[in-house]
Amino acid sequence: MNLPDKVSEIITVLNDNRYEAFVVGGCVRDTLMGRIPEDFDITTSATPAEVKLLFKRTVDTGVAHGTVTVLLGNSSFEVTTFRQDGDYFDHRRPSNVTFTTSLQDDLSRRDFTMNAIAYHPTAGYIDPFGGSDDIAARCIRCVGEPSKRFDEDALRMLRAVRFSGQLGFEIDTATHAAIIKHAPTLAHVSAERIRIELAKLLVSSGSGNFADLISTGLWQAFDPTSLPYFAAHFDSLRESIAMCDNILHNRLTLLLMHMDDAEIVRILKLLTFDNKTMKAVRILVRGINQEYSHDPYSIRKALGEFGADFFNNIVYLQEVIAAHANNSQALDNLTAIRNQVEQIHQDGDAYTISALAINGNTLKDLGLAQGEQIGRTLSFLLDEVCRNPSLNTLEHLTALSRNFSAQ
Q: Using 50, 70 and 90 to split pLDDT, how confident is the model at 325?
């Protein structure tokens, strides 16, 4: 396993001061899978206070749980003391953490065997629970007794499903059975943590594993209100979601496309999604459930309603849906729409009020409109310009405004 120089430096400093130190967890798992690790976590027999004495620049990331972040240059690395967890009382966090000098104790408290492997440049891989064999078999298996692991921390069940989707691994039989048994305890996990895991699952190549949330009872524990929707629709949605790019708001749009707007707002708020994501999904769901003609007037109106970026996204998602349905007629229409959008942009056609050659102040100064009438007049002018872009001159729009105000 090739370690970055700064990771090797941290391990060397700790070893030179008679402390054990290893990289552990995801970076080891990813390396054994032939993937490039995104970050490197280090575990050590040194206490947080001892780590802080050995390095000039540190941050107290989670000292109570044994974690200190070591800063080297522009890089940062989490260094965590070997630890044992106390009893769990809330199905989420241990009541206390005890530091230990045993790597075995530290690895034994971890969730899955594939995440319970340590590595040292000299000692090699330390794998007391057969994690490397499970990686080779593409299997997700709990460290020790699955029921105990999930009873301790209910989030681990959701992580098992997420890892299964992300990595393309199967959940082993005993672990899967324990998820079904303990699924109701997911109610103890915060909606924010559920959102994080769900988002990672949805943008993975195994987004279809969302079905496992339904079949195991995990989704029912989180939001029984929406269970009938997902039970009825997800099988028909999974392939189009998999065909879609891995942009989260696009995949959420396809996932929720048959929901009404109020239910979309409810579930996205429940999952603590930010307002930007919520706005995007609501607009896109509304957009993809409409049909569009490829005539220039209709496209200018659609561009004005949604904006160029959103409308381009809507067309893309409709292409995904049409491709999944092998609907060649719909795909031909969408190609024609794309060509028409490109032509509209090339010609510089106006499709928003701000692009008109006249504005509200001009209408007011010319005595052509006052108060609420200004908005109605501008909407009328935009509609006329969408029908005939050549009318977008001050002269034409002034004349049209006079006629409109005389009605």
A: very high
Helix, strand, coil % over all residues of the chain, rounded to 5: 60, 10, 30
Query: 69 has which bridge partners?
Result: 59, 78
Q: Are strands 67-72 and 75-81 parallel, antiparallel or unpaired?
A: antiparallel
Cα 129 to chain centroid distance, Å, stands at 31
pLDDT digit string, tens, across residues 348-398: 999 999 999 999 999 999 888 888 899 999 999 999 999 999 999 999 999
Is pLDDT of 311 > 80?
yes
Closest CA to 336 of 290, 387, 295: 295
Tokens at 318, concatenated: 């409709």
Whole-angstrom distance between the N-terminal and C-terminal Cα of the chain?
Answer: 80
Please give the mean pLDDT across all residues of the chain.
94
Q: Is the confidence at residue 91, as pLDDT, over 80?
A: no
Given a contact cutoff of 8 angstroms between Cβ atoms, the answer to whether 216 and 179 are in contact is yes
- Torsions phi, psi of 120, nearest 5? -130, 140
Residue 42, strand partner residues: 23, 79
> CB atoms < 10 A from the CB of 367, how many?
9
259: helix, strand or coil: coil
Query: Which candidate, 156, 133, 136, 132, places its Cα nearest to that of 145?
Result: 156
Beta partners for residue 43, in sequence order = 22, 80
Query: Phi/psi of residue 46, each to 5°?
Result: -75, 140
